[in-house]
Structure formats: structure tokens, C-alpha cells
Known about the structure:
By secondary structure, chain A is of the alpha/beta class. Chain A has 23 helices and 32 strands.
Amino acid sequence: MSPSFGRGAMTNSWSDLQNSECFLIAGSNCAENHPIAMRWINKAKEKGAKVIVVDPRFTRTASQADIFAQIRPGADIAYLGAIIKHIIDNKLYDADYVSNYTNALVKINKDFKFDSGLFSGFDAKTKKYNMDSWAYQLDDQKKPVKAASFDDPDSVFSKLKEHFSRYTFETAENISGIPAAKIKEIADTFCSAKPATILYALGMTQHTTAVQGIRCYAIIQLLLGNVGKAGGGINALRGEPNVQGSTDMANLYNNLPGYLPAPNHTDKTLRDYLVHNGSFQQKHIVSMLKAWFGEKATKDNDYCFGYMPKFNSGVNASMARVWDLVNKGQFKMVINIGSNSLVSIPNRAVVRQGLAKLDMLVVADLFETETAQFWREPGVNPADIKTEVIFLPAAFVYEKDGSLTNSSRWIQWKDAAIKPLGDAKPDLDILDLLYKRVKKLYEGSTDPKDEPIFNARWDYGEEPKAIKVLQELGGYDETTGKVLPTLADYLKAPVGAVSSGCWIYAGVTGNGNLAAKRKNDDPSGLGLFRNWSFAWPGNIRILYNRASCDANGQPVDSKRKLVWWDAANQVWAGNDGADVVDKTKGPDTPEGKQAFRMNPEGIGRLFAAKYTSGMPATPPADGLPPIGIRPAGVCNDGPIPEFYEPVESPTENILHPQVSSNPAVVMPATLPEVQKVGKKQDFPYVLTTYGVTEHFCAGGITRNIPVLNELMPEPFAEISKNLAKKIGLNDGDKVELSSARGKVQVRCLVTDRIQSYKVNGKETETIGMPWSWGFASLSPGPSANELTIGVIDPTAGTPEYKCCLVNLRRA
Amino acid sequence: MDVSRRGFLKLSGVSLAALATGIGFDPEIAQAKGFALKIEGTKKIPSICHFCSGGCGLLLYIKDEKLIHLAGDPDHPTNSGTLCPKAASLRHVAYSKDRVTKPMRRAPGSNKWEEISWDEAIDKVAKKVKDVRDKTWKATEDVVNATTGQKETFVVNRAEGIAVLGSAEVDNEESYLIKKLSMIWGTPFNEHQARI
Amino acid sequence: MLFGQPKEGLEMTKKMILVDTSKCTGCKACSAACKEWNDLPAEKTTLVKSYQSMKDFTPNTYTYITFEEKYENSKLQWLFRKAQCFHCSEPACLKACTSNAISKTDYGFVVIDREKCIGCGYCVENCPFSVPKVDKVANKASKCTGCTDRVENDLKPACVSICQPGALDYGDMDAMMDKAKKRLAEVQKKYPMANLYGEKEMGGTTYKYILLDVPKAYGLTANVSAPLSLTLWKDLIRPVGTWAMGGAAAAVLVGVLTNAVKGNYKKDPIADQSEPEKGGKH
């Protein structure tokens, strides 16, 4: 979503779902994996809202649908492309919105091409794109050139129209297995309802075409004018209790807190970093360095920028790839806090082998996860495993102070309710102990590499207090040492005068601990709840809400007014905080027109062009490279979505057989004997994996809760009645599922909730298996990730858990 | 009436026994039997659910520092006291006999855990961090420039041998310190579940 | 708090719980909440069919969800039903109980007093829905209590409080019946076969259902009533037997009558026909 809207977060909130007239739930099984969603969806349904569910299986969410369509896993872009074509062909778009708030009219570089499955700039050797041609036409001030009408052949709108012209309902049916009439019914239903929202989760992200699928959602919602509105938007339902927070805090190798890019090897100095990432980041990275190194970070020493390790931009070190690097021998030590890779990483043989190559594995968790006791997995001889393992017992959520950020971006504080069990400690204490002990070990060192450890600002008390860390995130006035009152105070302070560990949280502890606010009033009735906790950015509850107004700054939906320009007081006022550049800049100013202020263009991006705002018209006189204000987010596999087959597919790509799967995807080959791609002749069925209501993710906690094991006692393979008949299986029979990478034995659940379907005229079968099991816990069971494939999306790095090929036989 | 007859006879027997124990039935005893609410006299502390990203409010009922009941927080605007089955079962985690409550070490080649003290555990991990950091430190790196084809040397200041995984399962403050600590030690290799 | 002695200020009107299956997502939170509130241990299970993990009630499982998959004309309906004691107006279990352990509260909930229960199993045999179960070790019958301890303290039953999709609703019988009928009319627009179950059954039940399909599709029987044999036994034969028991029984009856005077037992016509009062008249 970031390349489309500027922020990679759910646009609206749980309680906002009640405002919608129509839901497209596609790539989310929210009734099972985000049960709270149904509370708000059902409120909307009572008022007449329609629910469309698209899923490879008839799920518990589908049981609530007005329209259900069974899709082949990984075929989303085909039917979404057809919906985009339908919107354009039938002029169902919101023309005012599209021209005011999107880049539809901007002209695209004449070198941009799309031909036979490849965008311009593809390098077949590196499997990477040079994105130079995915750019706007710029005027002599380096500003994007706008066309006079949508019909201009160079306009983004024309490019979209041309690109999606191939996506007819019939083509979409052939690819996705959804009947053309049903796709049309979905398109008609969704496009005729305003506001309408889209819900997705891992069902969309766990593909090698994940980012492009989400881009389809963004294009649909921008065309229909649904973004920035109550009851609209794109609700990306995040998977874990604090995955929004941990993404904000950047537990990601290529990010720093607050969505700053992490420095890579080409960033020798802070200036280099700004050349690559724009001057917009200067304030934020300096504030972060001040939070990390305090008074040691000065203008003269580049604010300690040199202390930061630089990743090699040519080496992908994303979560699934970390295990390739372990197998290559790079990592000797893995410190694993609250994750269970041996269950959760695709093609788990890679993790199993990798763990055995480490010198030391450190696990901080509540229960003995599979990862922690990999050395005694059935079939493994502990004597052969030389890895030393240290297990650190961690405290549970209600045994410690701290905050969690939910999918609505609400930063919610909670106090410890009880003491940690036994000798368990909060992870905060564990990290504090580690910092202090390592520092002590280095005492007396004069090696420059150890300077960051000595010079770090690390002052959370003898017994560390979470509130002190939250205050570091909320920021300090470095000249007075006082906490920053608000985000505005942070933004107006000069560079280097303030610190904030994560600038989007600036002000969270300003006037008391705002994350702990507990007033649940809702004066607008729109479910904004602005006095409950604190939402980043600046307590705005619906992102991009400037787009809920017309060009004059007045709400277009009189029933759902979020913000408006108050001409009398010359300010953006409203029920929500206005998501605008400056609250005092009216709709007649350039700032006041911007509905997507986090994009360098200030508008929504139908076409994800390579673009940096604020580039000087002439290069700097000192000969140094120029610094722009802000580069746009781009997708590594194209500026417009294109359908590609999953890496393991039961059919060929009928749009361009010569480029079947995503050309920018690389199959890892660290362990050739287990990292294999299967052929459809050997593995004729499509496997999709998922969670169930009763268990959570890798099951590390839920499989140790007896009641949940009672409610969902075992994993299973869901198969259609057709397939059961073909193989001669009865419900409950034990089957063996095998892929090119591994096999598992599990009971089969024969069901009408999966039907056989036709893809390119050929009968096709999907098999479903939940993935939350492993060999440990009170409820052990086979892991679906024994079978899955470790290929990842070229932009987001998310593995293709949702589709691989398998065979099935009676066990 | 066959069934009825048999039932009558059967009842005569058990019924007599029951009635015998029923002698002296005292309503005061019935009152003392525990129909009082089990949450009476508890302190209520709100918290946040630890499963999906709904961020539903929990309400913990504490008596004598013990968690005796867990329910949805009725004041929380997102869930108004409702919960999913996972959250509704969360009290179990507080006193689960399967929780690990002491640091443990599994020695190379061993087939079992041994309990160790926190001091020993932190010491072992810290020493290993220092050891791996010192041995795998990469001050500079040679990278081939894609456009020129030339090898160039870059300052990278990396502790190449340490990866830190985590976490979307911990609080913001902890997640932030994971990142900060990794970077201070010199490892950019901090990843987590957001990507999987 | 004592059964039948609600918190001061609470009106003692008949209550109703509406299970609106059109909103149920089969998430099973009601099961988990029931176990949490009642401190019931978990059971070892395997999947029975579809996503259903319990075949039947047990002494430790008062509620579970049934899962039925119905595929017709290329359309699938996944029918979820929360099963628990219906809390009948004319409870067969109460009639059958040999030890006066079963009573009905002012709110309409049918409760088993474990102190008095002797585990004879008559309630089990006579319940048309086979709800009560006898724990063979403790020799006590148990079933859903309607969270009587909660409702008489002005809290909703645990299952109702927890329900996220809003499939469970609780309130005064009359108001809830209005709600149910309005909602039924709404649901019937999409599901023509939808019906209200529990209105006539067993004299009307406390838990009523909006079902999306005929009761049979959920494994339920329509218009079920207490078995004739039970009525005969209860109302004709058993009173005579009690009379014949003499002194020991009379001692108990005094105790029960004392309670009745205190308002702990019902003035309900069904309760009035029960054996203590009748016996007392002899």
C-alpha cells in the first residue's frame, strides 16, 4: 500500500467497518483469524451492507457472505484486473476524485513499455528491473507534467486502460476458476456501493505477486474514490498482536523505526543517505540518532551516522532468507525472541538444517517451542547437534507494563496485572541485561567498533521501565530534557534539537501517557473513539481523510463527515484529526489540496512511478549529487499490477506463456536437495495453507492451552468430495500429502466447502491444510510448512505460503 | 407403562437414600454453597489481547495477586467485553504448568535441558555475542558496482555473524529495544514475523 | 447469592436468550467462555465432522457448536448451532428428578443443585435433548446453569457476554420475543426457510433460535414436548410413592416448604405440581 498511498498501514479501523455499505473480503478469513472484525461487519450488515467473500475455500467468513466465489489460490490479479477493466470501460470511476486526488492525469515517460509479460528495463541475468523508464514526464522545473484529459495516450489513466484491456471476465474465469458471471456480479455489487471497503490479510500477502495484488486493491479503491472515507479504504488486517508496532519499530533489516530506510553500504555519510532517501528523512533520522546516542550525536560527527551498520543492498536478508544465510554459514548465533521459525518458515527443512549449524541459539519465549527444542525433534539424534541452546523464560503480555499497536494503529498501553510466572522476565528486562552485560565485557576496549556500545544512550533505570522507553519514542526536547508535548512540537523543532526513537510516535507521552487514555465516547457516532489511546499519526483515526472532502474542502458524504475546511476559522476541523500537511492551509493552497501527503506527489498513485519530489532544476554548484525531498515507494516487479502464475502452478500463464511466473522472483538454492520446485505432472494438486479460529499462528501459545486443543484438536487436509472419490477416501481417513520438498501425514476432511473447478478448461483441485501445528506442545501435529515453497515476493519478501503443488495418497 | 413401572421401582431405592441424606435440609447451608460471584472482591485490571491485531481489551480479575478470571473489557470500544475463543482462554497461560519458569541450557550434543541461573544465562549469551561479534566483524566490504563492473570498498561496520529475530509478539518498547540493541551491536540483521 | 434470590432491585421477569444463527460464525468463543466462567476442565477430542469437536455434552462440557454442511443447487450453507440446555418452560428433567435437585429460577433457568443430586440419571433419560450428563465418579448430573450466578447479579450469561459477531442476545422474554420476530422477518428475506425454534417446544424455551433452515437440518425435532410416560409418572404415580415413604420424606418437605415460603422456589404452575408441595398436602 505504501507505493500507492504513502503509508503501509490499514487505512481505517475495526470500529469503522460499521460505516461500510459493501465489503470485499478477499485474502482474509477474518471471521476465523480476526474475529473482532465480524462484530463490526455484522453491525454494517444489519444496516444493509453486502458482504462479498473470495477465497479458495468456503470459510467461516464465507458463511456470512452474500456472494461467495471460490478462487484458485494465487489467481487474484486475474479477477481484480477484470474488475479494474470493468470500472474503466463503464466509467464507474469517481471522475472528480480521480483527477483531484490521483496521478491519473500525469504523463508517463515514453520509454515505458509492457510487452509479453515484461515491463521495460528487465535484466534477465540479475532478474531485476531498471526502473528508470517507469517515470513521469517532467517539466524543466523537474515537476511531473499533467495531461489535459484522461484520454491523453501518455496519461496514467490511458496506460491503465490499455494494460487492463486484456483482462476480460472470460480470461479472468479461465485463470481464476471463478465463473465470469460471478466476477461481473462481484464487480457490479462492489462498484455500486459507496462507501465500500476491502479487507485483506495474509491471503493476499503470501504470494510472489502479493504487492501487485494489493496494488490492484489500491487502484480499485482510488478509481472508485473510496480511500480516505469512513466505511471505505483498504483494511489490511495485520496478523499478530503487535505486528503494526513491530513494523513501526522496524524489526526489519532494511528499515529503521518510523519507516525510515535503513542505511546500506552506499551510504557513507548522512549526506549520502539523504541523497538516496530525500531531505524529508533528515529530521527523523537525526532525531533517532539523538535518541540512540544522546549528546554524543552532534552535527560535527554526522550525528553518529557512522556507528550504524550498513547492510549490503545486494543481499536479501528478509525473514525467510535469514535461514538461507544461516545455512551458508554466515550467522553463528541467532537470538530468537517470540517467534517459532521451525513451524512458521516455508520449507521448514531449511530451518531444521540451519539450526544445527549454529554455534548458539537463544530463545526467549513462554513455552518450549519447536524451534527451542529442534535438537530433539522426532527423527533427530541430539548427539549429532552441536548447537548450544539457551532458553530465557519470558513474561506474558499481562505480566508486564508496555504498549501494543493494533491494526487500527491505536497505541494501547497496559499495566502489569500480575507478576511474571516463576522466574520469567519481561523481554524488556532481558534486553536491558544483555546490553549491560555485553557493555561490561567490552570495558576498557579502545577498538572503534565498540564505541557505539559505550556511547549509546541506554537509560531506562536500574530495573528498566517500559514507560521510559515509550517516552524515548514520544521524544524529548534535547535542549531542556523534557518530553515533547505533541507531534507538532516535534515537527517544528530544528534538526538536532529534538530526539525521538520513532518519529511517528512523537508526542505519545506528551501530555501524560496518551496511550493509556480510556475515554470511550464517540460523539460523531462514526466509531472514531479519539479519546481512547492514541493513534499514529497525530491521533488521526482514518488515514488520508482529506480525500473525504471535495476540492473545496467540504465532506462529500453528509452522513459520514470526517473533516472539513472551516473557512471562518481558517482551519481544517472535523470529527477526526485532519490528515493534511498543515491544518491552517486551505483547499485553495497547494498543501491543502494534498490528500496523500506522504506521497512525494501528494496524490494517490494508480501508477507506481519512480519519482523524487523537490529535485533541483539545476545540479548543485558544489558538484555533489543533488538532494530531493522525498522519493516515492516503488514495487520491484512493475509499476502496474500484472498477473503471474504462482511459482508452482497447475497450469500455464495464458496471458504470456513465456513469462509464466513473476520474472523478478528468484528461487533460493542454498540447499539444492530440499529447495526444489515441483512439476504439475508429479504434484497435480494445489495446496493452500491457513489458520483456524481456535489456534494462533505457529501455535506456540494456543497449542499449550487445553481448551483450545479441545475446540480444534488436530490439523487436517480439506479435500473436495470429487477428489475423495477419485482417490477412494472417506472423511477422516489418514492421507499423505507430498510436495517436491517434503511430506506429511494427516487426516482428511472431505467437504463440500471446496469444489473442483476448471482452470484453462482443465479440472483442478485445491487442498487446504492449516499450518499451526508442530511436533511439540500439548497438541503435536504435522507442520504444513514441511510442504510449502520458500519463494518470496520481490518487494515485500513474503513467502508464497498460499500456493504450492502437492500430491495426495491414502496413508 | 413398562418403563414407568421400572422407573418407579428403581426410584424407590435411590430415592430413599437421597432422602436420608436430605434430612435436616437447611437453606442456610445452600446459601453458603458458593452461588456468590467468584469475581466478588477482585481487583479489575485492563489489558490487551495477545493474539491477532484486533487489540481487544481484556479485563483481568485479580484476588490476592492471583488471576482468577479473565474476560473482555466492557469499556473497550473495539470489543465491548466480547472476545474470541483464543482470548477467552488466556487465563490459562498465567499458571500453565507447561510454561518455562527458569532459564535453561542445552549443551552441545546433549539430549536434555539443564536449569541455570539468570546470571549464568545472561553471561553465556553476552559472552557469545562478544565472541561472534569480534570474530565476524566486517569493517569494510568489497561490492561490485553493477553499472561499472568495478569492485569498490565500502565501510559497513557490521557484526556479520549475529541475527536477531523478533518480534511482533512483544510490546512496542521491547520491539524498539530489539532494533536499537541490534544496531548498537552492529547487526542490521534484525527480522521478524511481519514478513511471513 | 442464592438461586432464586436475585440482587436487589432486579426485576424477576422471565428472560430469554436469542441465538441468531444468521450471525454466528462458529468461532466457539461461547464454549471457551463457558469453560472459563465455570472452571470446567478441557476434554480430549478429535474432529467429529466438519469443524465440530464435540459429539455430545459431557459433565464438563455444557455447550458446543454443531457444524452442518448443506450443499444444494451449487450453493453451500454452513450451519452453525450453539447447543446447550434449552431451559424449558416445562422441563422434563425437573419432572423426572427423584431428589428435588432440579428447580427453575424466576428467570426461567433450570438448575441442578449438586448437593441434592444423587446421580440417578432420570433427568438424562427424560430430557428430549439429552442435555444433562452424569459424572460417574462424583455421581452428580450437570448441565448449563444459564449462568444463574451471573444473571442474578445483573451480568449476562458468559456465552452471551463473549459473543463477538453478536449472535447471542439476552434480555426480558417479552422484549426479546419482539426482537426475535423482527429479526426473523429480516432473516427470512435471505433465508426463506428461517424459523424461530423454541417458541412452542417444551412449553417454550429460554434459549430460542433463529434457524436458517428447518430444525431437522440442525438435527433438531420440531414441536417436541415432554414424554407422556413422564407426565404419568410424575403427576400420578410418584406422589403416591412419596406419601408412602412416610416420615423421612416429610422431614425434607418441611425444609423445602420453608424455602418456598422464602421465595426460593417458583410459583410457576409446573413447579406447583411438583411433588413436595403436593406431598405436603397429604
